[in-house]
Known about the structure:
The protein is α/β, with parallel strands linked by helices. The chain has one domain (2-141): Rossmann fold (3-Layer(aba) Sandwich), CATH 3.40.50. It contains three helices and eight strands. It has helices spanning 12-25, 37-48, 111-122, and strands at residues 2-7, 30-33, 57-59, 70-73, 84-87, 101-106, 128-135, 138-141. Strands 3-4-2-5-6-1-7-8 form an eight-stranded mixed sheet, sandwiched between helices. Helix 1 (12-25) packs across helix 2.
Amino acid sequence: MRVDFYRAEGPPERIVPQLARRVIEGGARLLVVAGDGELRARVSEALWAVEGAFLANGEAGGAHDARQPILIAPDPLADNGARMVVLADGVWREVPEGTERVFLIFGEDTIGAARMLWKTLGADEAIERNFWKQEGGRWVRAA
C-alpha cells in the first residue's frame, strides 16, 4: 500500500478536489473520509464546483453508495469499491484490505500526529510513504 502525506496550507476542501480529479480521470473510485459532518459537506460542495470536471459524489448511507464514483463518509468502512482513500481530516484510520493508496491531508493542528504516523509506517516494509508539500502553488514531493 502507498501512503501519501499532504501538508495542507489551506483547508482540505481545496485539496480534495485536486486529488479526486486525478483519481477519477485515472478511471478509479475514491472514498473520502472525515469525522466532521461540516467538513464532509464542504468537501462535497467543493467537488461539485470544480470547473471542467464532473466529480459526482454522495454521502455514505444512501441507497446508491456502491454506484458513487466518490463516496464521502465518516469512516473508511463505507463501500463504493474504492481502492483509494482520502483521510481529509488528518486523522489516521485503518483502511479496508485491498486499499492501494491512502492520501492523508494534514495541517498545523495534526502535524504532530502525522510525524508520529510517518515514523510508525516507516517500520512496515509493505508500505511505501511519500511526503508532499506546496511550493509556489504546486505540489512537490519532499520525501
